[in-house]
Write a structure and sequence with these properties.
Elements (H helix, E strand, L loop, with lengths): L1 H13 L7 H19 L4 H16 L17 H10 L2 H13 L3 H5 L3 H7 L2 H12 L4 H8 L6 H10 L6 H13 L1 H12 L2 H4 L11 H18 L4 H16 L3 H24 L4 H4 L2 H31 L18 H13 L6 H25 L4
Helix pairs in contact: 2-3, 3-11, 3-16, 4-16, 5-10, 5-15, 5-16, 7-18, 7-20, 8-9, 8-18, 9-10, 10-11, 10-20, 11-18, 12-18, 12-19, 14-15, 15-16, 19-20
């Protein structure tokens, strides 16, 4: 009988119930909300499902993120090794490879003015940087936080790792990916507030055809120009352009398929679960996290607004040929932001098709956010 009682007692001690804190229950609840939003309402489930599940796992079993140095047997937790790939900038760079292989850069090539809209939307990044400094964050921490304004999860992780801000990498990554997922919720009210019904109904001229040669030369030229000016952007810009060159060259179809499908989805699983696993209650439930989340939201709103306002300026300058709504797509959330521009434009006029026009600023925003990250690294002398 004593053996049975001891055995049962050991089993009870091994359960998670005795070790869960109130904070853990809060984070488990947040994870369940994220899963609900992803599964029931379709808020970017490819991002939110792995992030939420990683959040769930680490708050039930914290040792799933334990490092080898902390483990009694010298073997780290499963998600710790996934997370190391984030710190080494491997997973963010591979995400960019997949994005490049999946994305048509033709709209940006056909309308180079889109670069201006992509640049304007980066205003949110620098606004967040100043805001973070004002709230007491160090200059490097402020720079890492500010990239959330571009709604670019991989670049946020990349810069946080390069600037050695691993202590706040979890909140930064979760905020960035959450806002990427919530683009369809956050952007439309801002877009409608800053535009008139007439502006939203503007129909843009069909984009000119882009030759195959232009599509092949574009990633090569962008890589040379950007990486010569900011060599530290090579891991992100280089992988983005390599993926696009795979797509447009027409001679490596197998590599294109792998980068845009199998590899991309594997990386999303590894990156999403490891990002979610950084949100243990001890690390996540503090004032710094709240500040980061709020700064990210403000930065994203500023970036969206700046893109739309610059779109209005271009609309006036071109005599009403540019719909200001495409300026909101200047953030890096590809292709979600472009889809939102299309959706809001179609609500004003169902015959209005803005998707391809919005893809130009959207792609420009991806490049712009990577350039912003490279600029911060250059400022701080990081290689």
């Amino acid at each position: 009988m004593e053996y049975i009682l001891n055995t049962l007692g050991n089993l009870v001690e091994q359960t998670a119930f005795l070790n869960l804190t109130f904070g853990n229950f809060i984070m488990i609840g947040v994870a369940c909300v994220f899963l609900y939003l992803a599964i029931r309402h379709g808020f970017e489930p490819l991002l939110l499902v792995p992030i939420a599940f990683g959040m769930l796992l680490v708050n039930i079993f914290p040792d799933i993120m334990i490092s080898p140095e902390e483990a009694e047997n010298g073997v780290g937790g499963l998600l710790h090794y996934f997370y190391v790939l984030d710190e080494w900038s491997i997973l963010p760079s591979l995400i960019f490879l997949g994005v490049g292989a999946m994305t048509d850069f033709g709209p940006l090539i056909a309308n180079p003015k889109s670069f201006l809209l992509g640049a304007a939307a980066q205003f949110g990044i620098f606004a967040a940087y100043l805001g973070a400094m004002a709230l007491g964050f160090s200059d490097k921490a402020a720079a890492a936080i500010s990239i959330i304004g571009g709604a670019d999860g991989p670049t946020s992780i990349f810069l946080a790792g390069k600037l050695e801000q691993t202590a706040i990498m979890g909140p930064i990554a979760v905020a960035a990916y959450s806002y990427m997922s919530l683009v369809p919720v956050i952007q439309p009210p801002i877009m409608k507030l800053l535009t008139t019904e007439e502006e939203r109904k503007i129909k843009m001229e069909q984009l000119r055809p882009v030759s195959q040669l232009e599509k092949i030369l574009f990633p090569i030229i962008i890589t040379i120009v950007v990486c010569l000016i900011l060599p530290t952007t090579a891991p992100l810009v280089g992988m983005l352009m390599l993926g696009n060159l795979f797509r447009e060259s027409g001679v490596v179809r197998q590599l294109t398929d792998t980068a845009s499908n199998a590899l991309m989805y594997i990386v999303v699983i590894l990156l999403g679960t490891s990002v979610g696993a950084t949100t243990s209650a001890e690390a996540f439930l503090n004032w710094d996290t709240i500040k980061i989340v709020l700064l990210g939201l403000i930065a994203f709103a500023f970036g969206t607004a700046a893109g739309v306002i610059f779109g209005k300026i271009m609309c006036k300058a071109t005599g009403g040929k540019i719909n200001p709504l495409i300026g909101s797509a200047g953030v890096s959330a590809v292709p979600m932001a472009a889809r939102v521009s299309q959706k809001v434009g179609a609500e004003a006029d169902p015959t209005n098709f803005l998707l391809m026009h919005a893809m130009g600023p959207n792609v420009a925003g991806v490049i712009g956010t990577a350039v912003a990250a490279g600029t911060f690294m250059a400022i701080f002398g990081v290689k």
